[in-house]
Amino acid sequence: MSTLKPPSDNFFLKSFAQVETSLVAPPLVKSCGLKPKRKRAIVSVEFTEQERATIREKAKMAHLSVNAYIKTSTLGSDYKPPLDDAARKLLLSLNRELTAQGRNLNQIAKHLNSGTATPDQGVAMLDCIRVPLARALYAVKNALVQGAPQP
User: Fold this and answer.
1) Between 15 and 62, where is the model more confident?
2) Residues 111, 103: contact at Cβ < 8 Å?
């Protein structure tokens, strides 16, 4: 019978060195010219101190740097200012309501698919959540209309 010998101390060092060499990052590959570098130009604009303060305040309200704010406002991006507290609370409550309604629908589908509820019971369960679902839909429509930009 052969007996197993414990590995030598050299064994662990050798194994660690082999693993370490496999973890070394490959050399960086330079771009092959497929993605051209963006060339930037500096544009200088002069503002009065009042105009500068107004721009800083608007950028702060928009949670943007002054440079990013000027770019978005001059290039006509689809930037929308942040919501006020009342609108944010409304959207959070709508999100909670829609999440709850989605859970209700999933539970009804689960019962119908597993056979623990009959189709008649499924219709009755859907009737129970029909009114809250309609209210949530109405609230979402109102939030979208109120948040729509004016022409």
Assistant:
1) 62
2) no
Tokens describing residue 86: 């009342």
> pTM of the prediction?
0.45
End-to-end CA distance of the chain: 91
Task: Using a pLDDT cut of 90, give the percent of the chain over it.
Answer: 24
Distances (CA, A) of 116 to 58, 92, 100, 129, 130: 57, 34, 21, 19, 21
pLDDT at 33 over 60: no
Q: Break the chain into its structural domains and give their ranges.
A: 43-82, 85-147
Interacting residues of 64 by C-beta distance below 8 A, sequence separation 6+: 72
Q: How far is CA 126 from CA 7, 61, 131, 136, in A?
A: 68, 44, 9, 15
Residue 9, SS3 per DSSP: helix
**CB atoms near residue 134 (< 10 Å):** 10
